[in-house]
Every structure is written in C-alpha cells, then in structure tokens.
Write a structure and sequence with these properties.
Elements: H1 26-54, H2 64-70, H3 74-102, H4 106-133
Helix pairs in contact: 1-3, 3-4
C-alpha cells in the first residue's frame, strides 16, 4: 500500500546549495537582457524604417548614394551599429537557449553553440567593419566607377 504525505504538513527546510554548485545569475541576466534589448530593438528598427521609408522618398530612393550619405553621419553609423550588435546578441542568446533546450547530447550542444558563436562573431566583425570603413569615394578608383556625388 502506498501512502501519500499530508499536503498540509509542514515541509522540512530545503538544504541550500553551496556557492560552488550554483550557476549564478547568468540565466536571470540573459532573461532581463532579452526583454530590455527587445524593447530597444523595437525603437531602433522602427526609427530605421521611418527614416528610410517614410521620411524620404520611399523604397525607390534607397540606393548606394542614400546609404553613403546616411553613413556620412556618425549618428546613423552608431544607430546602425547598435541595431546590428543588439540584434545579433539578442538572436544569439535566443538560439543558445533553443540549443540548450533541445540538444540532448553534450557533444551536439557544444558543436551547435560553437557554430552559433562563430556565426555571431563573423557577422558582427564584418558588419562593424563595413559600417566604419565604408568609403563611397575611394581615392584610387576609376572615375567611371565612382558615384556622381564623388568629386574627382
């Protein structure tokens, strides 16, 4: 015969895990970051869309010259950099959670997270380089290849 403990009986106190066995608050910080970065990303993305599509001449005006003119301003460089970094960190953190939840083997989880972090690093480094080293008017380029707004 199986007996069920009285649900109204006081519980014995749980032993607190030692400081060495707890993982800390990294998951809590990740959870808070996802909420804060998501809210900030909404502002950044809608500001980006408004300035590119509504305030200007619409999608037909977006071309090489538009991007070159936009990135001539440090404000838009920082805006786009923040959008890139936050979106990549936000997405990588979300995918890390999915991998942790669904990859049952440690080796599989290690490989998937390694590939995820590699993709994150390559995308963020290349995107940052493009934003800060973009030069629409290189000095040694042939004149017929330069945009019309570049001076000779």
């Amino acid at each position: 015969m199986t007996t069920i403990a009285d649900p109204k009986a006081p519980r014995p106190p749980r032993a607190r895990p030692s400081r060495l066995t707890t993982r800390g608050n990294t998951e809590l910080y990740g959870w808070v970051f996802m909420r804060a970065s998501g809210a900030l990303l909404i502002v950044l993305i809608f500001g980006h869309l408004f300035m590119n599509l509504v305030a200007g001449d619409g999608i037909s005006a977006i071309d090489f010259g538009f991007v070159a003119g936009k990135w001539a301003s440090p404000l838009w460089q920082i805006w786009d950099l923040l959008m890139l970094w936050l979106a990549m960190i936000h997405g990588t953190n979300g995918m890390r959670t999915v991998v942790n939840d669904y990859a049952s083997k440690d080796g599989t989880r290690l490989v998937l997270k390694g590939l995820l972090y590699l993709a994150f690093t390559v995308t963020v480094v290349l995107g940052t380089l493009v934003i800060f080293t973009f030069n629409p008017c290189p000095t040694d380029a042939p004149l017929d290849l330069l945009p019309s707004f570049c001076t000779a």
